[in-house]
Amino acid sequence: MSTATHGPVRADQAPPSRPAPVRGSDTRGRGWGGRIFNGFSHAFLVVWAVMVLYPLLWVVMSAFKDDSQVIREPLSLIPHKLHWGNFARAWGEGHLGAFFLNTVLVMVGSVTLTMLLGSMAAYALARYEFPGNRLIYYMFLSGLTLPIYLAAVPLFKGVYNTGISFPLLGPNKHLMLILVYVAWSLSFTIFFMHSFFRTLPDSIAEAAQVDGASHTRTFFSVMLPMARPGLISIGIFNVLGQWNQWYLPTLLMQSVAGEPKHQVIAQGLIELSVNQGYKSDWSGLFAGVTMAMLPVLIVYIVFQRQVQSGLTAGVSK
Amino acid sequence: MRHGVARFVTGFLALPVALYLFYVVWPFAQAAGYSLTDWGGYSDSQHFVGLDNYVRLLSDELIRKAFWHNVFFLVTVPLFTIALALFLAFLLNVGGREDRAGIRGVFGSGLYKVIFFFPQVLSLVVVAVMWQQIYRSDNQGLINGLLMKVGLVDPENPIAFTADPEPFLGVPAVLWWLLLIAVWSGAGFYMVLFSAAMQSIPKDIYEAAILDGAGRFHTFFKVTLPLLRETISVAWVYLGFIALDMYALVFVMTPSQGGPNHASEIFASVLNFTAFQKGQFGYACAMGVALAIFTILLAALQLRITRRDRIEF
Asked: Distance between CA A183 and CA A109 in Å, rounded?
């Protein structure tokens, strides 16, 4: 695990926004060659930027058109009038408001619990020697390679059976989805935080214990605050990951015994778009997609340095 | 300070381990067990059938098709994404003007990075639903609409995109269209990753290369690229996992989730179809186990191939 000492430390250092210049004099590629290459670079980068931005802009702008303009002038980026009603319709009739509420309810619980349980387990595994330590660590790691689809059938069955004796943990229940999200997020969270806690110096924890702090107290008042950069990275990773989760909710938030489904946002959008053929409320669909993507995009633009370094630190381990 | 260590460790591990065992390990273990039965999923009747399900897998036409489609994504998604990401990172970092300080990154590279990263923060579902509108086969679709306007596409005969099973280079067209989306959404992220790695290379290495008379292309291919080897191989492993997980795109974008006419089936879509539509849970579990074994072998293989000595600077 030679890489372990490098990854998370980098996490809080955002890459400089401007690439470092390559110093020194160069005889080739100077002058005209360099200028042409510079022009070519800009041209290609602009083309790719347009390819990324144009579809996003098109979706947002179409969300403001009325249905007749969507059909007659599908390509135009300028709505005749701002039809805010599309958003109201998607929020109410399209049930996007309910999807948002469900997503937020679930994620407040699941992200908090994932971070708490994940860092507790990672801490115990990283800094205490006890029999079975490796076994438990590798058990968590193995979850990173196994495909979720394999577990789908028994997982649904297990949740269904639990629901018979504990109704709150059955299918279509927020609490159940919270626990399932936590369980499936633990692998990566523990993997990440484990290497982070390893890098923290021993001396501070020892000093705290000499001062009479218990193990638990040492963790919560000393070690956890020191791990903040790592917590931010893995927190961003978990928020985006759970916000984007669609397979688990599609599998588990199914209506049983005719009660209405508590869909989360990704699941709800899929159902909206797959059923779209029957209703053909195009502007409403565009408004729904816009509402699903704008919050994340805005959060990203505000925190872009943290998000970029947080997510890339998650990979470069 | 050994006092109370056992109690402390148990207290910290009990809940995470219990949750993980119940919701992750136990389903996996059960799946392995069910794969040896003929369980249908809805009834209680199940009989032990040994390895029959696995034997059946070998001769299943649909599975063979799905397997090759998975292999297609496994090769193309990392290949195209990494190539494009490297190219973009290269342009960003060495495409700028030269002055006395040397070769610079292009003007506005920070802004480009922010924009290119956009698709990464959107969920795959939002991306899929959005591209479903872009790929529409009438003049309301973004691509068909534009091409019809300039007269490149006959309105009577639009591009069918994900409803097109016709092979292109031996692979159904629908898979190529799905590949385009995967590359579109992934390239920016890996560009940022490679860019950060390029910037962590110490400047004296470049200075040495330039003193030796290497131009920017030479420097890139002979110095930067070899030093990025580790980052690229990590990216390859991650993209490999993403390639196995194209199910969201198949689920949202293709007719009857794997169509048209099974042209876009992948392992996951066949598994879900077999379990929940055909009601053959035992057989579906065998597929899952096969997929898991395939994934683990692949991960081991990739780690073996890409394992090199780490260059420390």
From this structure: 13
